[in-house]
Amino acid sequence: MDPLVYVLDLVVFIGIFGIVSLSLNLEFGFAGLANFGKVAFFLVGAYTYAILSQMGVPFYLCLIAGALTSAITGFLVSLPTLRLRMDYLAIVVLTFGEILRLIIKSEAWIAGGAWGIAVPRAISVAGASARVDVLVNIGLVYFCLFICFMVVQRLSNSPYGRVLRAIREDEVAAEALGKNKAKYRAQTLALGSAMAGVAGGLFAQYIQFIDPYMFMPMLTFTVWIMVILGGPANNWGALLGAALVQIFDKGALIAKDYLTLPIDPTDLQYILFGVLMILVLLYRPGGLLKESQVKTKAMERIRCGRNAVKNKGSP
Amino acid sequence: MEETLLKIKEVRKHFGGVYAVNGVSLNIKGGGIWGLVGPNGSGKTTLFNTILGLHRPDEGAIYFNGKRINNLAPHQIYTLGLVNAFQIPRLFHKLSILDNMLLAARGHQGDRLLNSLFLRKNWQEQEVELADKAMKILESLELDHLALSPAGELSGGQRKLLEVGRGLMASPTLLLLDEPAAGVNPNLGKKIFEGINDLSRDGLSFFIIEHRLEILFDFAHWVYVMDKGKIVVEGKPEEVLEDPTFYQVYLGE
After folding, report:
1. Which of B86, B93, B128 sits opposite A169 (nearest CB)?
2. Which pTM does this prediction carry?
3. For testing the chain A interface, which of B77, B78, B95 should be mutated: the one with the most A CBs within 10 Å?
């Protein structure tokens, strides 16, 4: 295979998982929601895309539909847990993801069951080489990533993001300051799930075939590693984490082809992940990048005023 | 001065077999400083938490501005202008002091998802004004030089000040303060009460729990004394000081 395609393929995966990582960062990093069922919303987006595109619906509508169904699912799943402590949300979404996957697997009439379902490419250029094909995908994926990044970045630098952080820090105090925590949590989960749904759709059309075994709970934990490694409540950190984990992941696959090791590189990769996580949590518990501050016009004005006074003070 | 702002009718709240609040009724009229004193464990903080909606009363009713509030959620009560500062400060430690202040503002348009995402014009100017107001309050509390540092870096006394500052930031109609001067150095404690006094002249009402009676009795114009979940004495500070029950409550039989 063309070695450049390896690299471009990696770039596509970084983009797709960058979106998922950003969405978990919104939920966990900013709002403190322990979404241990990320894969469920990724799955909903992927299958919505697959089913609709097989019916001949244009790809952009499939992506939007994937985002919507995923957002609605996120909202519904969160309803019973919004007023409870955060651990309950983690338990509910974790099991929900597995239940959903098993339903898809056993009910063949939905989307081919365990045999999976073929998905047409979003944009196929007639007679294009593998390289061009991947490049087109990079364009599509990074366009979506850009939009998602703008959304979360805007929210994190707004009063809304400030409220999310406050709920994360102390939910009772936030309620006592007039913030309706149930509403904020439901909105955040819906928005985060919508983003995961888009990523699921992009994933499905890129690999052109999905089956239930691609949506194991391990995927959720991989995304968690991305966020914790990169630095929760920092959107650049979420992207950095996604890139590092994907490079590691794909690196192990390539290493498999070229290296003869006494153990399987995929297993070795899991061991290294574990060690890496322990090291990060020990020495940089806040992740590689620090939590970003809320930057709004008003905050910047005060900050600038402060610096002006400082500069005057020191000759 | 005549309108009844907060009306509490026969409120009871029990935990297990103990009635922490056992049939309290009181009327707070607009304007002025209202004190609530009593020995430890007499139910003062529980009464406050019940007013704020953090506890549901088992019996009784609470009205604020004529509206029944004892079945509302804490965030709804806050929106009505009944605001509180916790006894043990509950700050958002990773957020800056200014962020903590801005979170306390009532009716910040940017707190809505769509405004924050798309309609930034709807709140940017408002937030600039709110930030100016926050800086003024911080200045009066001598915290303005720390405005951009994380709240977690403050000392115990400064945390207490910020907690009070957040209460003021909400521009409430009635502000409940749970021991505002505890843990603050004596000079500043006095200054806090002088500030409260000035604000009360501007029409803001205060309901204050305070163990430092010498300060509270200088400023309050009406004092409730609570013991074992009940109001045992009430009146002007000088009247309360002459009441034998008041001494019994504090010094024992």
Report:
1. B93
2. 0.86
3. B95
